[in-house]
Design a protein that fits this description.
Length: about 170
C-alpha cells in the first residue's frame, strides 16, 4: 500500500512541478516582452523621438481608439513599411458593448493604412469558435472585421478603451 501511495504521490508531484515550471516560463516570456518593449521606448526617447499615444495614432488613421485593450505596454510603428506592432502585457480578451469579444496575444502586428488595419497577427474574435481576425476596415460609422468572413459592427462600440481580461491561452 505504501508503494502505491508513493507512486501516486510522486506522479502527482511531478505533474504539479511541470505545471509550475510552465507557469514560470510564461511569466518570464511576458516579462521579457515588457522589458524589450520598454527598452525600445527608452531608446526612442533618448534619441528624441517622442511617440504619440496609440489612441492618437489610431485616430490619425481613422480607426476606433478602443480596438486594442487599455493596458497595452507600448507600440512600434514603422512609417515607411506601415507596420504596426502593439505589445500587450498578457494574453487577454476584451468584451465590447455590442457583445463582441476580441482576444489578443502578447504581440499584435498589422499593416496600418488610412481606415484599415490589415495582415493582422495576434488577434481573434469569437464567432461560435475563436477565429483569427485578418483585417479591420473603418467605413463611416461601421467597422468591418474580416475573420474567415466579413462581419460588420458598429464603430461606436469600439470608441471606448476597455480593460483586457487575462486568459491562459491564445
Amino acid at each position: 500500500m505504501d508503494q502505491v501511495f508513493g507512486k501516486v504521490g510522486s506522479y502527482w508531484m511531478g505533474k504539479k512541478a511541470t505545471q509550475e515550471f510552465g507557469s514560470i516560463g510564461n511569466d518570464v516570456n511576458s516579462l521579457s516582452t515588457t522589458i524589450e518593449g520598454g527598452a525600445k521606448w527608452l531608446v526612442n526617447k533618448v534619441k528624441g523621438k517622442i511617440q504619440k499615444p496609440l489612441t492618437e495614432l489610431l485616430k490619425e488613421y481613422d480607426l476606433a481608439i478602443g480596438i486594442f485593450p487599455r493596458d497595452i505596454t507600448n507600440y512600434e510603428f514603422d512609417e515607411e513599411k506601415k507596420k504596426l506592432t502593439v505589445y500587450v502585457p498578457n494574453i487577454c480578451e476584451v468584451n465590447y458593448k455590442d457583445q463582441s469579444v476580441l482576444r489578443f496575444s502578447t504581440t499584435v502586428t498589422g499593416l496600418l493604412e488610412k481606415g484599415k488595419l490589415s495582415e493582422i497577427e495576434g488577434m481573434k474574435t469569437k464567432v461560435i469558435i475563436w477565429i483569427k481576425v485578418t483585417c479591420i476596415t473603418s467605413v463611416e460609422t461601421k467597422l468591418h472585421f474580416t475573420a474567415g468572413m466579413r462581419k460588420c459592427r458598429s464603430r461606436d462600440a469600439y470608441e471606448v478603451l476597455r480593460d483586457g481580461i487575462i486568459t491562459s491561452k491564445f
